[in-house]
């Protein structure tokens, strides 16, 4: 019985050590976020932070982007629903590269993906730089 109690206490101490070692010592959140919930959900009793009131929330590591649009953090350079500005949607088949809607199947500066430039001699055909 005594060895069972010792084993139980040892297991509790190991669980506590693992929990303490898993917590990060880095505090990357800004001062205005201290004391609020980490999960920013809108459950009762929790504070929901909105980027229209707190625009710096979009600059936190892990945010979807540095810009605030319709109370959501977005990136105006890559978001196809907010390309270049809030609410500007790229049409079907186009993607947002550097804040502009482009067709990756034909655009020579963004052939197949953003930033993929074709040679001066080649052209972009179906998203592939041709060298003919």
From TrEMBL:
Keyword tags: Signal
Protein name: Stigma-specific STIG1-like protein 1
One Pfam family cited in the UniProt record for this chain: Stig1
Similarity field: Belongs to the STIG1 family.
Naturally occurring in which organism (per UniProt): Abrus precatorius (Indian licorice)
Gene this chain is encoded by: LOC113853314
Highest taxon of the lineage: Eukaryota
Extent of the signal sequence: 1-22
Residue intervals passing through the bilayer: none
């Amino acid at each position: 019985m005594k060895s069972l109690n010792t084993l139980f206490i040892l297991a509790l101490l190991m669980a506590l050590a693992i929990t303490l070692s898993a917590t990060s010592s880095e505090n990357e959140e800004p001062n205005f976020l201290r004391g609020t919930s980490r999960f920013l959900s809108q459950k009762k009793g929790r504070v929901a932070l909105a980027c229209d009131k707190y625009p710096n929330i979009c600059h936190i590591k892990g945010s979807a982007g540095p810009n605030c649009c319709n109370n959501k953090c977005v990136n105006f350079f890559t978001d196809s629903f907010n390309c270049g500005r809030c609410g500007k949607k790229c049409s079907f088949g186009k993607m947002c590269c550097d804040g502009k809607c482009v067709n990756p199947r034909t655009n020579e500066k963004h052939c197949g993906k953003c930033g993929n430039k074709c040679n001066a001699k080649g052209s972009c055909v179906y998203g592939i730089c041709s060298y003919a």
